[in-house]
Amino acid sequence: MFTFSDLFQWDRFITPTIIKTFYWLVIALICLFGISGIFSGLAAMAISPFAGFLVVLYSIASVVVGIVFSRIVAEFILIVFRINEHLGAIRDQGGMR
């Protein structure tokens, strides 16, 4: 975990510790937008049943794709930071010789 003083120092990164929080916030937003789309599709079924059904299907599919895509982005960010740590360890090993 990071402390408040870490925000003003550049000794370590804070992104890897807070990326999980942002990931869950994005998941919550995706689910809220998906639920909103489903309700919009159900309301549109009163006017045009086929169009409303398509909106409901599109909303469900976009929730699934959004969750998978957000997980991929979060893992990519964590991988970049892990690569940085490994490169630092390799650099430190090379300086000892």
UniProtKB/TrEMBL annotation:
Domain of life: Bacteria
Species of origin: Bradyrhizobium iriomotense
UniProt protein name: DUF4282 domain-containing protein
A UniProt-annotated Pfam family: DUF4282
Membrane-crossing segments per the record: 21-47, 53-81
InterPro entries in UniProt: DUF4282
Keywords for the protein's UniProt record, in alphabetical order: Membrane, Transmembrane, Transmembrane helix
Lineage: Bacteria, Pseudomonadati, Pseudomonadota, Alphaproteobacteria, Hyphomicrobiales
